[in-house]
Hints:
The protein is 78% helix and 0% strand. The protein contains 3 helices and no strands. The chain is globular, with a radius of gyration of 14 Å. By secondary structure, it is mainly alpha-helical.
Amino acid sequence: xxxxxxxxxxxxxxxxxxxxxxxxxxxxxxxxxxxxxxxxxxxxxxxxxxxxxxxxxxxxxxxxx
Length: 65
């Protein structure tokens, strides 16, 4: 499973991206809230293991030298 530090880092990065999208008016505030709630509820389902595997695969692919 993903470590707490890594999860916190991802949450901060995606939070900053969401704030920047809302500020640029590409995403409205209510849409950002819906996306956040979707992510929160998605994280409580078994789909999180598939998402975690995909993210790990991508990170390993980009950081592999």
